[in-house]
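User: I'm putting together notes for a lab meeting next week and I want to include a structural view of one of the chains we've been expressing. I don't have a solved structure, so I'd like a prediction I can at least talk through. The sequence is below, exactly as it appears in our construct file.
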Amino acid sequence: MKEIRPFGFRDKIGYMFGDFGNDFMFLLASFYLMTFYTDVLGIPSAAVGTLFLVARIVDAFTDVTMGRIVDSAKPAKDGRFRCWIRRIAGPVAIASFLMYQSSMAGAPTTLKYVYMYVTYLLWGSVFYTAINIPYGSMASAISNDPDDRSALSTFRSVGATLANMLVSVVVPQLLYNANGEIVSNSRFTLIAGVFSVCAVICYVLCYTNTVERVKIEKPNDAPKENVFKSLGTLLKNRALIGIIGAAIFLLLAMLLSQSVNQYLFRLYFKNTAALSTMNLIGSLLTLAIATVTVPIAKKFGKKEAATVATAIAAAAYFALFVMKTTNVWVFVALISVAQIGTNFFNLVIWANITDIIDYHEVKTGQREDGTIYAVYSFSRKLGQALAGGLGGYALQLVGYDSAAAAQGLEQTQPVLNGIYNVTTVAPAVCLVLVTLSLAFVYPLTKKVVNDNVAELKRRREG
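Assistant: Thanks for the context. Below is the predicted structure for the 462-residue chain, given as structure tokens.
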């Protein structure tokens, strides 16, 4: 029997590349897909928001279904989770590329809508789900040591940050000119194609550098689990509910801001270079925070530290809303303060999920990595969809004219002021709700987490 190498730096780097690959596609869609739909295809922003909400309804079924498949299927020779990275890496990358076909700009309106729905659902609700659920669940199988899992969470977030640097800093320079105008519609297609290739390379690096060491085999005579009963049990899990609430509001704050920022910097500040600078600063801050995240979480606890961090972020957004600044660099400075808080929580949140999996096992005796991660993943997609949907509806509410934008016409000043308000007060309110969810709903303090780890160790040794 082949000896399994011990957990080490290679696993951390491999796991990092997994989220690097995910976020080549996820962040491209989060930052630019609405702009592609409204300004290239000429589709009203409210219709785009409806698409995102419909897709999340579909995800309610596909995410949970994939989680149950992962938990119940017989593991392949390369593991319960890694095999899905091997199977789905190609299809998910192709589906992502298909969403950005600029040649559809001249198609009939009905065909545009059909194209938009088919390609987006194929990517997000089918293939992205089929690779992201196993990837996220895999952390608990790479190692059962809490410190190793915290390291995996940090490295995963570093991978996302590196992707963010490319997507948010480089892409605007390629898509827009100095006045914030789209250089060429075909740039969307070209960039999507390059990023899809990069995503496949990252998935290959993730697959070849990680090892599943924790084998949890179910007895052959184990009764077949009822999915509704399992979900009912999970919905009583206070820790899961608390982190879902926090995750939804965090993503609403971050993605709503990121999505509408494309319009704010192009139209209100007329400075897309500042947008790239702001995104670069945010990425560098994340990398800097990553060096102290584990020590801070170890000393104060993940819940305790994240609660303070998100409260600071909320205060920064509220300050911007009150100031109504027209100075882009003042805006960038305060957003950077907010990013310190949100990025800290993002760095530790994946370790929170492994804590919740342990908490669930302590409470129920059942180990359901895939299903728990699937429910959490759906909540993140819901946050993403709500951000896109509310972003589209908010733009419509403030009077944004997508037809005029497609013709290169400017928006009115009241519309620009409305865009500013959306990008400041909405994230501020959402981050207050994140803080409240962590402080009063999520129960896994530092002491509780340590007690659960000790209890599971006692049971397994027994």
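A couple of points you could mention at the meeting. The chain has a mean pLDDT of 87. The chain has 16 helices and no strands.

User: Perfect, that's what I needed.
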